Amino acid sequence: ANRACRAPSTDAADRPPGKSALSSDAVSVDRLAPLELQRLLETWPDDLHDLAREARALVLELAPALRESVAFHSLCYSRPGAPFGVIGGNACLISRCGEHLELAFLHGASLPDPDGLLEGGGKAKRRVPIRTREDLRHPAVAELVCAAARHQPTA
Questions:
Q1: pLDDT by residue (tens digit) across 5-43?
Q2: How far is 17 from 39, CA to CA, in rounded Å?
Q3: Rounded distance, CA 124 to CA 104, Å?
Q4: CB atoms within 10 A of CB 154
Q5: CB distance 26 to 105 below 8 Å
Q6: Those residues with Cβ within 8 angstroms of residue 33's Cβ, 6 or more apart along the chain or in another chain
Q7: Cβ contacts of residue 14 below 8 Å, gap of 6+?
Q8: pTM of whole model > 0.85?
């Protein structure tokens, strides 16, 4: 089943069935080569590898138009062509945080969080600790990824 993020209802009628509002019409979207992914994961504890791959699959399934790269020792997902690249266009990051992962949102303070999953008190960045597959599979995690992928930061 395609779980790509749903578009705001205002333009849904203009899209072909099954086309995500975040899907790219471009022929290719930047993805890490398997070796690049492996190099990053080799710097993380072995027991986080499968969880990181599952988190990656979730982000790519929900927001397939995002560009994938390695930045800040993390898997970084950003909107292609956004001003200030992986920072200004950032949707989320999958990062190692000690012995667990975190799904980080550089613009997280601007995201809706009705379930209260976001942690952090800085000016903008928020994160969701991911210790188990159950943490990753919480429905609000997918909602946060989708909201972040749609978010357009202001200056």
A1: 864 433 333 333 343 434 433 334 688 888 999 999 999
A2: 38
A3: 11
A4: 6
A5: no
A6: none
A7: none
A8: no
